[in-house]
């Protein structure tokens, strides 16, 4: 079995003007495609090639740097494309909104906290909203690490992730990472995040 | 002391096609400048308020280390370039390279490989170790070999901001161009 680059549910230009078509195309085909190919090459002929990605990530400290970096890159980008979409933005609703308000005080306070985690991640990495023992938590990881990995500072089930590698925004925003983060809120598909939250509750 | 952004010894367009004017303008004018500004803000009221960059690199942590080391790293990086470079090392530096790596060509391959394989943001380095021998090392993010007691001679920035406007995901193409603009006269001076 080998991992497949998942189909995007929208066109490269669907997140314009917040994420430009050129960035989407390179990010998806070259970066995500690269992680997928490199992951497959790293696990080919090993027992890992029989496992789902989540199982590989959970014991990542036992595997090579190539599996950690590319396995993380594969999973993280899968999630990233899923939680964005055209006509995105606005606010979550239902159970997820209740949980956000309970944990962070308000949706705005959550946004500030998540944006700050994304802005202050030095170097390459990701900001996350995760479920940890049933409650919500915001933090960030370096490079392609993620909260499913046993090496992560905080472990849990990710329901929202923001890529703050420079390749995610440099063509459009250059050094202005805060502007990219601010615009990310306009492309979040909250329905997809809510579905992940419900899965995490089970 | 107040840290300042050094002026480059060449114009932004001078390194093209290896590095475009646009990349130099952002890299030096925005990123390097931001590290200088952040550092100046962060050191106020700390024991590093009057420290030089090497002291900060050796002793500081967190934001002061990150910004201080990035100021030093970028200055070291930009000042190794020239539009009219001496294309290869000579004399003592060449002898050391040959002794350690076999040939200048083999050294370039090894350094290129270190720069290409560094995952995420960081720097590849050519350093002199405590025994006076050359070594190639990798540092993540703002890392700088001075902190480990090594003496840097050459560095390559592989943060994506160093090459993304010109090369996007093609870091190996950026590394090819890198060798065309290194002025080995500068590196020889650093060895003295």
Characteristic terms for this protein:
heterodimer; A: 202 residues; mainly alpha; minor pseudopilin epsh fold; globular; B: 192 residues; Helix Hairpins; 2 domains
What would you note in describing this structure?
- Chain A has 202 residues and is mostly helical.
- Chain A is built from 8 helices and 3 strands; from the N terminus they run αααααβββααα.
- Chain A has helices at 21-43, 53-58, 65-82, 94-104, 107-120, 170-173, 177-184, 190-201; strands at 125-132, 135-142, 157-163.
- Chain A has a 3-stranded antiparallel beta sheet with strand order 2-1-3.
- Chain B folds into 2 domains: 20-78, Fe,Mn superoxide dismutase (SOD) domain (Helix Hairpins, Orthogonal Bundle); 91-191, Iron/manganese superoxide dismutase, C-terminal domain (minor pseudopilin epsh fold), CATH 3.55.40.20.
- In chain B, 49% of the residues lie in helices and 11% in strands.
- Chain B is built from 8 helices and 3 strands, in the order αααααβββααα.
- Chain B has helices spanning 21-43, 53-59, 62-78, 91-101, 104-117, 164-167, 171-181, 184-191, and strands at 122-128, 134-140, 151-157.
- Chain B has a 3-stranded antiparallel beta sheet with strand order 2-1-3, with helices on both faces.
- In chain B, α2 (53-59) packs across α3 and α4 (91-101) packs across α5.
- The radius of gyration of chain B is 16 Å and the shape is globular.
- The A-B interface holds A 26, 30-31, 34, 65, 69, 122-125, 142-144, 165-167, 170-171, 174-175 and B 26, 30-31, 34, 66, 119-122, 140-142, 159-161, 164-165, 168-169.
């Amino acid at each position: 079995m080998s991992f497949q680059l998942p189909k995007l549910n929208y066109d490269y230009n669907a997140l314009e003007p917040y994420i430009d078509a050129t960035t989407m195309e390179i990010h998806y085909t070259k970066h995500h495609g690269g992680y997928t190919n490199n992951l497959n090459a790293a696990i080919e002929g090993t027992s890992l090639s029989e496992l789902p990605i989540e199982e590989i990530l959970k014991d990542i400290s036992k595997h090579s740097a190539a599996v950690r970096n590319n396995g993380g890159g594969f999973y993280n980008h899968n999630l990233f494309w899923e939680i964005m979409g055209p006509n995105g933005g606005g606010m979550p609703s239902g159970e997820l909104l209740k949980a956000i308000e309970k944990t962070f005080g308000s949706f705005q306070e959550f946004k500030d906290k998540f944006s700050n985690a994304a802005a202050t991640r030095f170097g390459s990495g990701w900001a996350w909203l995760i479920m940890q023992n049933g409650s919500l938590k915001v933090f960030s990881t370096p490079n392609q690490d993620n909260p499913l990995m046993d090496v992560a500072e905080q472990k849990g089930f990710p329901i929202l992730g923001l890529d703050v590698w420079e390749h995610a925004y440099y063509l459009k925003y250059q050094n202005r990472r805060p502007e990219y983060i601010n615009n990310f809120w306009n492309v979040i598909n909250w329905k997809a995040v809510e579905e992940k939250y419900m899965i995490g509750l089970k | 002391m107040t840290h300042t952004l050094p002026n480059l010894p060449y114009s932004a367009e001078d390194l093209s096609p290896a590095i475009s004017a646009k990349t130099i303008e952002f890299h030096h004018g925005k990123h390097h400048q931001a590290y200088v500004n952040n550092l100046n803000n962060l050191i106020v009221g700390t024991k590093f308020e009057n420290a030089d960059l090497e002291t900060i690199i050796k002793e500081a942590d967190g934001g002061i280390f990150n910004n201080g080391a990035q100021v030093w790293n970028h200055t070291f990086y930009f000042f190794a370039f020239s539009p009219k470079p001496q294309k290869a090392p000579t004399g003592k530096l060449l002898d050391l390279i040959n002794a350690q790596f076999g040939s200048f060509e083999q050294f370039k391959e090894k350094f290129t490989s270190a720069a290409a394989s560094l995952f995420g943001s960081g720097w590849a380095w050519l350093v002199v170790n405590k025994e006076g021998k050359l070594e190639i090392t990798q540092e993540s993010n703002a890392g700088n070999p001075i902190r480990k007691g090594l003496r840097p001679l050459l560095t390559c920035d592989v943060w994506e901001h160093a090459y993304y406007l010109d090369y996007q995901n093609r870091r190996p193409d950026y590394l090819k161009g890198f060798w065309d603009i290194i002025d080995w006269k500068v590196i020889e001076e650093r060895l003295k």
